[in-house]
Specification:
Number of domains: 1
Largest sheet: 2 strands, antiparallel
Order of helices and strands: EEHHHHHHHHHHHHH
Strand order of the largest sheet: 1-2
Strand content: under 5%
Shape: globular
């Protein structure tokens, strides 16, 4: 996930784009939360029923839910005959192994690779960017394919991973907000392309952001590959960290603890961005994406917004770098 600052020239060093986007997102999330509460749902349990039952209307019906009570729903699940289809929502040893791979293994491997790359950089022979992108594709897709394979093998429906869309007002609200915010972010990227002053502002914002500069595309080919990587991250990271990890962990602990641990794993997987400011931005966006998923009841709004942030961030970096190269010439 890449989140690029555009500095407001009229306000010394003020992060205009970051402030606007984040304020808009938080207002939207607050509106969803307020509407959920106004609909009579307990504020402490807004997230609960969907996670326990995998956001499946069929399972909700068979479990007689409409009940937003985690403990009660979990008790119902545990009392279900192990031979029934509903029992498939329980985590298994396969799920436990996948949670370990995604929650611990993925951030650990990513960090080791990052440290090795930093050592190579110091030694003066940095890995070609396209090769680094290839490693990133593998880190994203290998665990995701394993996850999906295990999910299918155990006979579960994909809507239990949040990939359904039932047409509820929460679904449509979440999707609408995601599309609006995505369009806004892409518009910011377009402004970098057409406005040299804004391109200069992006370059200024990148000062001290070594981790982001290291992964910024430098050629047209790299930019195209980066776009594919952005789409991949939007899909795979949301399935792994937002849907699967929260779903699995919530069977063993309080939902809020499961959410917190998934956010920690997600943030640790982005330590390659190096600076404290960059890591905080990743964490904050992770919170927004988690809220978008859990409050809308569908993973698609989070996938769309995540992909748009990465695509928009990559576009800003690319257009700013092109301006920089043009200025040097």
């Amino acid at each position: 996930m890449i989140y690029v600052r555009i500095l407001n020239k009229t306000e010394k060093g003020g992060p205009m784009t970051r402030g606007l986007i984040f304020a808009t997102v938080m207002v939207a999330v607050s509106a969803l939360l307020a509407m959920s509460v106004s609909a009579g749902e307990d504020i402490n349990n807004v997230f609960s029923a969907g996670i326990v039952t995998g956001f499946s209307p069929e399972l909700n019906s068979e479990l007689n839910t409409g009940v937003h009570d985690t403990a009660k729903a979990r008790d119902m699940v545990q009392n279900i005959d192990s031979g029934s289809d509903i029992a498939r929502i329980r985590p298994t040893s396969i799920d436990a192994a996948l949670m370990l791979i995604i929650g611990v293994g993925l951030p650990f491997v990513g960090w080791i690779m990052h440290k090795r790359e930093m050592a190579r950089k110091v030694a003066g022979y940095k890995t070609p960017l396209l090769k680094s992108y290839q490693y990133s594709f593998l880190l994203l897709w290998i665990p995701t394919i394993l996850l999906i394979g295990g999910w299918v093998y155990q006979g579960r429906a994909f809507n239990m991973l949040g990939l359904g869309f039932d047409g509820t007002w929460q679904n449509w609200m979440g999707l609408s907000i995601a599309v609006i915010l995505s369009a806004f972010y892409m518009w910011q990227a377009f402004r970098v392309k057409i406005n040299e002053r804004i391109a200069e502002s992006v370059l200024k914002g990148l000062e001290g952001e070594a981790g982001i500069q290291d992964i910024a595309p430098q050629s047209h080919t790299e930019y195209r590959v980066f776009q594919g990587l952005s789409l991949s991250a939007g899909f795979t990271e949301e399935i792994m960290f937002r849907a699967f990890l929260v779903w699995g962990l919530s069977h063993y602990m309080l939902v809020i603890v499961a959410i917190t641990l998934s956010l920690v794993a997600f943030t640790l997987a982005h330590l390659y961005q190096q600076t404290v400011n960059a890591i905080i931005r990743v964490l904050l966006m992770g919170i927004v994406l988690t809220a978008a998923y859990l409050l809308s009841g569908s993973l698609w709004p989070a996938i769309i917004l995540h992909a748009a942030v990465d695509l928009g961030g990559g576009a800003m970096l690319w257009y700013a770098k092109k301006y920089e190269q043009k200025s040097v010439v």
